[in-house]
Amino acid sequence: MGLNKDESLPQDLNSSGSPEKQSGAFVRFLNIVERLGNLLPHPITLFAIFCMAVIVISGIAGYFELTVTDPRPVGASGRSEDGLIHVVSLMNAEGLRMIVSNLVTNFTGFTPLGTVLVALLGVGIAERSGMLSAAMRSLVMGASKRLVTLTIVFAGIVSNTASELGYVVLIPMAALIFHSLGRHPLAGLAAAFAGVSGGYSANLLLGTVDPLLSGITEAAAQMIDPDYIVGPEVNWYFMFVSTFLITGLGALVTEKIVEPKLGKYDPSEANIDLSNQPMDGVTALEKKGLKAAGIAIVVLSALVALTVVPENGPLRHPETGLVAGSPFLKGIVAFIFICFAIPGLVYGKVVGTMKRDKDVIDAMSHSMSSMGMYIVLVFFASQFVAFFKWTNLGAVLAVSGADALNAIGLTGPLVFVLFIMMCGFINLMLGSASAQWAVTAPIFVPMLMLVGYAPETIQAAYRIGDSVTNLITPMMSYFGLILAVASQYKKNLGIGTLIATMLPYSIVFFIGWTCFFFLWVFVLGFPVGPGAATYYTP
Questions:
Q1: 167, 295, 411, 428: which sits with the fewest CB atoms below 10 Å from its CB?
Q2: Mind telling me which residue stretches traverse the membrane in this protein (predicted)?
Q3: What's the CA gap between 294 and 168, in Å, rounded?
Q4: Which CB contacts under 8 angstroms, 24+ apart, belong to 360-364?
């Protein structure tokens, strides 16, 4: 159903059926971005190239004995006696030995690998049992007509805990729901797409993306502070509240900008027969299963609370007695696994999708089978991150960049506006959140730490930039699928029309979310997550 990047796409048509003029600076900019993105190799190939580049550059820099002054205080962990950061060459016998002897441990010790796979085992059970799909359909189809737009955007955001479910299930369903209400189906599709992809980083619960990004951030932060720990929960406060912000902004853009622009829908534009489109509701058995799963979640929450809420709770920090730095937060991935797996199993038992232990095993196996590409990507990304750390190239770039920011006086919170914009721009051409962060984190996390900001805050800002341009980049992995669904409702719909439809969301999300970030972090002084610092002192 999806389209490959190299497949030809139909020409954009306006309402009169004539070709739209591809003019204007922004359209030309998007065309350039698309061409540049298509020139980029696959992210896996890109990381392999980066690994080779690091080796070569380290050899050249090592030959010329490139150094920078270490800004860390005397006696700090990892600081050399001469107070300098030296580039270490990998283009010699010692470098070759280091690469060969650590190739496997670089991969197996890469923090995001294990945490993401463990979390997905639980999500796989919940998804395969049908619980997540039923919960989403119950949420969206049970909404009142006045709240349907808000509900669809909200459902899109929370669907991110279940990988591709929002793209495959919710977006086509939203188009059908809008059409059944006499509204433009592309407006429904746009609202769902805005929630699923534009609100990618926001959510009420921790999902697989949280340990994925935090592991990369931690590795980058340890270039400056070897003992720095970044847990999966460090952005939870900010992302929890951002869920409601993006829900409101998404619904507002849909009803005030996108839907009026689309106008009244003409069914003759469809490529499919709209008179016989099924829109399955939630059956009585599924409702019974959801109720049982809800009870299971309440029981699990109560049991977890017993280990954390009391002052002497076994999962509090054994020395300080606090939740910050506690085994509960350090082991949050285990709770993500449990809180998806057990309710999913209960639901499956009730509705009959999980009758035997083999069904549970098959569900977990299926979730792992879909991760083959990710595992290969992690292999090369982990080597790149390790090489970057060994050579000290990341630290040298970070110190040089921090010195440049200090020289021009750009060390205040305004630096985050440029950082978010840069992340959004890179995302136009490198759509994978993990791939982009694995490339940029080793440079910008240490750089902004040296300017005085904590990795947790830097990661929260990155997540804004990574999310808001997902809607307008053809490099996003599901963009072809969205285009294929949209073309069912409008003949000859092309990539330009879809991007133009989603552009208002990207603009409003960027402005609104960035302003909210500044309000939350720098005006109100709230932490972005449990125990998360805002500032860092080198």
A1: 295
A2: 44-64, 107-126, 147-178, 236-254, 289-308, 328-350, 371-390, 410-430, 437-455, 467-486, 498-523
A3: 24
A4: 360/125, 362/128, 363/124, 363/125, 363/127, 363/128, 363/129, 364/121, 364/124, 364/125
CA distance 128 to 344: 8
| Cα–Cα distance for residue pair 440/444, rounded to 1 Å | 6
Find out whether 412 and 426 touch, Cβ atoms under 8 Å.
no
For the ranges 134-138, 335-339, 432-436, the one whose mean pLDDT is highest: 335-339
Distances (CA, A) of 262 to 194, 425, 435: 16, 27, 35
Kindly state the helix (H) or strand (E) to which residue 68 belongs, with its residue range: strand 67-69
CB distance 468 to 422 below 8 Å = no
Among residues 212, 115, 203, 214, the alpha carbon closest in space to that of 161 is found at 203
Structure tokens at 51: 């690994």
Among candidates 162, 160, 164, 141, which has minimal Cα distance to 152?
141
pLDDT confidence tier of residue 508, bands split at 50, 70 and 90: very high
Phi-psi region of 163 (alpha: psi -120 to 50; beta: other; left: phi over 0): left
Work out the pLDDT band at 275, boundaries 50, 70, 90.
low
Cβ atoms 197, 234 nearer than 8 A: no
Residue 113 has pLDDT above 70, yes or no: yes
Q: What is the mean pLDDT of residues 180-187?
A: 86
For residues 96 and 20, give the distance between their C-alpha atoms in angstroms, rounded to a whole number: 56
Residue 186 CB partners (closer than 8 Å, separation 6+): 175, 262, 265, 486, 489, 490, 501
Give per-residue pLDDT as tens, 425-460.
Answer: 887 766 566 677 887 888 889 889 988 999 999 999
Q: Is 407 exposed, middle or buried (0-12, 13-18, 19+ CB in 10 A)?
A: exposed
Please write the tens of the pLDDT for every residue from 193-229.
999 888 778 888 777 778 888 888 998 898 888 889 8
Nearest Cα neighbor of 242 from 286, 275, 189, 204 is 204
Q: Is the dihedral of CA 385, 390, 394, 397 positive or negative?
A: negative
Region of residue 24 (phi > 0: left; psi between -120 and 50: alpha; otherwise: beta): left
Give the whole-number percent of the chain exceeding pLDDT 70: 84
Can you tell me the distance from the alpha carbon of 335 to that of 198, in angstroms, rounded to the nearest whole number? 26
Which candidate, 160, 29, 22, 46, places its Cα nearest to that of 425? 29
**Distance (Å, rounded) from C-alpha 258 to C-alpha 255?**
6
How far apart are alpha carbons 468 and 193 in whole angstroms?
Answer: 11
CA angle 106, 110, 114 (to 5 degrees): 130
Calpha distance 224→79 (Å, rounded)? 9
